[in-house]
Amino acid sequence: MKFATFRHGGREQAGLVDADKGRIVPLKATDMVDLISRFKEIAPTSSSVGASLDLDLVKLLAPIPRPRRNIFCVGKNYRDHAKEFASSGYEAGAIKGAEIDDHPAVFSKPANCVVGPGATVETHPGVTAAVDYEGELAVVIGSHGRNIKRSDAKGYIWGYTIINDVTARDRQKDHRQWYLGKALDTFCPMGPWITTADEVDAENLQLQTWVNSELRQDANTRDLIFDIPGLIETISAGLALVPGDIIATGTPAGVGLGFNPPKFLKPGDTVTISISGLGTLSNPFG
């Protein structure tokens, strides 16, 4: 099943999506996190609060428009991207031949930079001159857990969505850390919806990113260095995960800084990310 957050008639609500028919059914849940937390109780297929609506007549928002906590992000989790990043000059302390870490690099992205499909991403002139894209598969946690074993990790996953981990590379480089370069307003497009885990083979998803009409990223999630169960085990060690938590699993090679010269984004560009079975997330930059 696919679930989205949408606005219609001045009201924001969660809905069950039929992507093939282009329809969405409003649900009783207060919001997406409420739906995730009470998924079995709410029984989405029988808890609609109105007739289905044409997707073209509603405004899709980020599936979780206001995450309750910062988004967990994983850096350099595809081998080719780790190499392009290390050789780009934008990674402080990069050592040739030691691009692959022994443990995942985990950081966070503030919840208030989330925007939905079609929302304009600010390029922040005067703050940065090196705005970059990062198409990523994101995991949505469905139940509370701490010290989760990798063998049990899949049972804590509610679904998957798409995230663009937009990054100001110059701020990332100048401050010798990642947070400030990834925390600017609007720097986390998410969507178009969440697809439940039972419908997704997360170990074999094709991820593609276009800038305007140019294909920049084309990779498969089987190439992740640290797989999703391992990431959940690592992140949950001593830190409880809760329903609605989001883990962005990393981006493959083909980001703007990997080109010579770099191909950073400018106002008027549109970034489109597609992941097989999960849909397409597209956002203009302005």
What does this molecule look like?
The protein is mainly β and about 290 residues long. It has 2 domains: about 1-60, no CATH class; about 70-285, Fumarylacetoacetase-like, C-terminal domain (Fumarylacetoacetate hydrolase, domain 2, Alpha-Beta Complex), CATH 3.90.850.10. About 15% of the residues lie in helices and about 30% in strands. The protein has 6 helices and 18 strands. The chain has helices at about 30-35, 40, 80-85, 170-175, 180, 230-235, and strands at about 1-10, 10-20, 25, 55, 60, 70-75, 105-110, 115, 130, 135-140, 155-165, 165-170, 190-195, 205-210, 215-220, 245-250, 270-275, 280-285. The strands form 3 sheets. Strands 1, 2, 3, 4, 5, 6, 7, 8, 10, 11, 13 and 16 form a 12-stranded mixed sheet that branches. A 4-stranded antiparallel sheet has the order 15-14-17-18, with no helix packed on it. The chain is globular, with a radius of gyration of 18 Å. The mean pLDDT is about 95.
Largest sheet: 12 strands, mixed
Summed up, the domain count is 2
Query: CATH top level of the largest domain?
Result: Alpha Beta
Class derived from helix and strand content? mainly beta
State the fourth-level CATH superfamily of the largest domain: Fumarylacetoacetase-like, C-terminal domain
Radius of gyration: 18 Å
Distance between the termini: 33 Å
**Silhouette:** globular
Number of helices: 6
CATH architecture group name of the largest domain: Alpha-Beta Complex
Low-confidence stretches: none
The multimeric state of the shown protein is: single chain
Helix content: 10-25%
Number of beta strands: 18
SSE topology string? EEEHHEEEHEEEEEEHHEEEHEEE
**CATH fold naming of the largest domain:** Fumarylacetoacetate hydrolase, domain 2
Mean pLDDT: 93
Portion in beta strands: 25-35%
